[in-house]
């Protein structure tokens, strides 16, 4: 992985005006080499600066999401495997809102495509899914690009504070109401 990343970085640096295109393609192909989103966004900040690196990362992350949408339609086995992971992480909940998805997408330990699968399942079609994917890609692209060096070099205490901050934001944006069916409320235990 390191060798591929080093070669990719050198290739993008030397490609001149085509560098943004190659960087976006790096986003699209990164999952084949198990390169985390965080690393690619950090590279974007290093190569293009905060503004352009964020723009290219948002485009790249949205492109990855659209490619994933097609793969899920073609390969149902992939969808089943990710559904199991999603069920474990989301515990069967289907009421997360868009701000919560943005925060979840910023968490480096949450699999990128688990969030994408959730967005597919809560969207009515490719157009709505693409719009949601675009919006959900904005926070991590900006955060990882702009503060990449800071996040990368944070000591353990700083990382814990940052994760706590994300958790606090996640809780603040949750839906304030929950509903329960009559049967669930009056469910009787079987002996």
UniProtKB/TrEMBL annotation:
The keyword Endoplasmic reticulum does not apply. The chain crosses the membrane at residues 21-48, 54-75, 96-120, 154-173. Keywords: Cell membrane, Membrane, Transmembrane, Transmembrane helix. Signal peptide: none annotated. Residues 35-149 form the VTT domain. The keyword Transferase does not apply. Its main location: membrane. This is TVP38/TMEM64 family membrane protein. It comes from Alkalihalophilus marmarensis DSM 21297.
